[in-house]
Design a protein that fits this description.
Elements lengths: L5 E12 L2 E7 L2 E3 L3 E5 L6 H8 L7 E6 L2 E2 L4 H7 E4 L11 H11 L4 H14 L15 H13 L5 E5 L7 H16 L3 E5 L3 H7 L2 E6 L2 E6 L1 H7 L5 H9 L21
The structure holds adenosine-5'-diphosphate and magnesium ion.
Length: 263
């Protein structure tokens, strides 16, 4: 059998914000055709790592190859091969699904009948054909997330990054996203997905990487992680490796002036 090819290879990938290290010397390989679950507590560094791998943010140190191209020196080549479904939805609420997608498609250099056909195919894929001419402000969160996923797929990327795609969705929408991820993967796409739902990661991922405080602390198959840690569930593994302390890290970013003083 042909040896699996790595489509993401990071070398000491690091991001600092002033004196805080959000992503700390990550060395990771994601193989072609994998669904890679990228897990970690809030503030662990998942989104920051994804932003670097998708060329939205420059590493402070180290680099990575994505689809065979360097994220620093060949970012245009990287962008052609990756799709991103970002944590925060980025759609124009007053525009219809089709208008939003026409706009984003043009940003990718797509146009004309090719773009229209692509949008129609994707609308069918995410079952939004009936709503395509409604402004997205009238959409439910599940419908908006499906448009957001379409947006990430417009230019038919080989590698798709999904940052918490199922957060805040209802069970039907979650199941739909799972089925879609599997379908896209069967079509040959490599998928990197972050989530806080351990069951989701366990069922979907071929391999899982757990990041905490910016460091990759474990990478293995779901079964491997469980057996290595003598745990029945991925949640048990996750809590064993990352601890049970609450991560209320947002508090440190609140300016002191906004803190309530004791009365
Ligand atoms: N632009 C930024 N400036 C300063 N700190 C940031 C910035 N972006 C992220 N951080 C910090 O980096 C850490 C990792 O954040 P993030 O990658 O969003 O975590 P995750 O996606 O795993 O929840 C957090 O402590 C966050 O507050
Ligand atoms: Mg995040």
């Amino acid at each position: 059998m042909e040896k699996a090819k790595a489509v993401i290879v990071t070398q000491d990938l690091t991001k600092r914000f002033n004196d805080f290290t959000a992503v700390d010397h990550i060395n990771l390989e994601v193989m072609q055709g994998e669904i890679f679950g990228f897990l970690g507590p809030n503030g662990a560094g998942k989104t920051t790592a994804i932003r670097m791998l998708t060329t939205l943010s420059e590493p402070s140190e180290g680099t990575a190859k994505v689809g065979g191209y360097d994220i620093r020196s060949q970012s245009d080549e990287v962008r052609k091969r990756i799709g991103l479904v970002a944590e925060k939805l980025i759609l124009y609420p007053r525009l219809t699904a089709v208008e939003n997608l026409m706009f984003f498609g043009q940003l990718y250099g797509l146009s004309g009948s090719y773009l229209r056909q692509r949008i129609n195919d994707l609308l069918r894929m995410v079952r939004l054909e009936a709503f395509k001419n409604m402004s997205v402000s009238g959409y439910s969160s599940g419908m908006r997330q499906r448009v957001n996923i379409m947006r990430g797929l417009l230019h038919d990327p080989d590698i798709l990054f999904l940052d918490e795609p199922t957060a805040l969705l209802d069970p039907q929408s979650i199941q739909f996203v799972h089925d879609l991820v599997r379908e896209l993967n069967e079509d040959g796409k490599t998928i990197i997905i972050t989530t806080h739902i351990m069951e989701e990661a366990d069922q979907l991922s071929h391999r899982i990487g757990i990041i905490d405080h910016g460091k990759m602390i474990a990478v293995d198959t779901p079964a491997g992680l469980k057996s290595k840690n003598g745990s029945q569930s991925l949640l048990e593994v996750f809590l064993k490796l990352t601890g049970k302390e609450l991560r209320d890290s947002a508090s440190k970013k609140v300016p002191m002036g906004m803190m309530r003083r004791p009365v």
